[in-house]
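Here's a chain:
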Amino acid sequence: MASDYLHRLRKLGTRLGLDRDWYLIVMATLIGLVMGVAVVGFMWPITHAEELLEHMGASKTGWMVWLALSLPIAGALITGILLWLLPIRLKGHGVSICMYSVSRENARLPIRLGIRQWLASTATISSGGSAGPEGPIVTIGATVGSAVGRLLRSDPQNTATLLGCGAAAGLASVFNAPMAGIFFVLEVILRDFSLRTFTPIVVAAVMSAATTQMVLGTDQPLFGVGPDIFGPTSEKFTILQTPEFMVLGIVCGIVAVLFGTSLRWVERLFHELSFPKMLKPMLGAMTMVALGITWYLLEPFAKLNTQSESLPSFYGNGYMLIKSLMKPEFYDLAQNDATTMVTGAMLLMLFVLIFMKIVATCLTLGSGGAGGLFAPSLVVGAVTGSFLGVILESLGLISGTNPAQFALVGMAAVVAATTHAPLTGIVLVYEVTRNYSLMLPLMLTAVIATIVARILTRDSIYAADLKSMGVKIGRMSDLTLLRRMSVRNVPMIPPVIVHENESGQRLLELSERFSVNDFVVVDDEDRYLGLVTGSDLNQALVYREAIPLLQVGELERKDLPTVHQNDTLDVVLDKFSANDVQSLAVIVPDTNVVLGLITRARLMREYQRELEKD
């Protein structure tokens, strides 16, 4: 009965024209509305759990503090059980799973993935695990979009677009930053900026953000970091400030690489560890809790702690820490002190906090915990910016800015460097702060950080996951990379020349002598006429006794296209796709003289080599 109704629904959709591409706009609108409400439901328990943890951590009752410090262990145990109860075939973190699905699975994601990410991430983050909610909500949205595409029986390209709509809608609502959601999906997940993909993703992101604002009755981001907490900023960016932000970009790029490398190392460590998989997240949480207790007991700068008398600053998603670092008054104590003691203590705390946040995130996610990398990247960037800002200010090298603004720009730089997506980092921080006066340093620092990160390591924090699964992606989309290469970049096979009036037996002799399958047919002036392909020759061999009676002209194919040395490889690949052959002739345009054969296998091999370089 249900299948009958579904068939009628699809039939009605066809009559209404939903089999054409414009239905993507309609589906993007619906996905945006659904995700706008889903994000509120996903964030509500996490937000309230964080408030409860803060209250417990600040409590004067000793046992409540110790309970709050130890809660990540319980959350990790629940996460491990959930991951065991809801297994999936795909490996990797949420965003990398989405990228793998687009690249290798025709954008198909199991619905179980969304349920698993929702429940497990809530358990991890709500208990104080060092992870963010943005990665999970991106995965949840992508799962919704993929499910819609499968329901409508869309082709892989449209299903990928709908997957991107869900991912962009989720990120747009969490940050109240629709442009950041759009650019993240186009730049990282789909790697496609075509208008056909761009339009529905814009619709989904805008509808989702608007829905969330309507439900909450506010246009502030769900994590509470809005324009009101960033304090005054300089009205203009001058050339005198470029050196300090260039230094910040270099430092953030190095820190981002350290972050990604550490995460991969911890993941390998836990993967090789002989321990029940279900309990590995709890083992990682226990190590993090040990660090938290040490921090809580031995912290020598209580007055400078960003969450004084509360949980360690590297617990949870870290948005409370960002709030503190964005307020210029946080740095007043160091500025007003006549000695360097307080400034030194602050620098020591910030320096240690950078590495503690990286270690805590690696232990949480590297051990198998659920959550995203966006929030930790923002936190690491904010602390790195603060650290460098305090140093420069104490040396009198800051001109027209303050450490709080360095923290803000550092957020964009580390996000850009870890994801290798500078547009995403720039637009995200701009939308969150809505302060255009910092746009120039944001762009400069984010781009420099990305360049430094790419020099030090080719793979972004997500691409490293894909590489471990045998998937290679370039800096740009595959099509763009193919357009950048030409036939000249592919080694050609020397042609084996035959004439139309020669016997079919001649083809067999040449095939045995040169170990080739395809033969180039030319006229008496050596001008290209056609090809005899290996598949056609094999078919003729069914009647082997008739081969000597056949002429080359009878086996020749004149319908196959030719290519020129200046043709880009996307054009050549289109020709291969339209003709089921393994070789095409490369000719000189004016004379039709054959230069050689380009094969499908060699084209793809050179493409893979270029991906390695890119």
Observations:
- The longest strand covers residues 594-599.
- The mean pLDDT is 80.
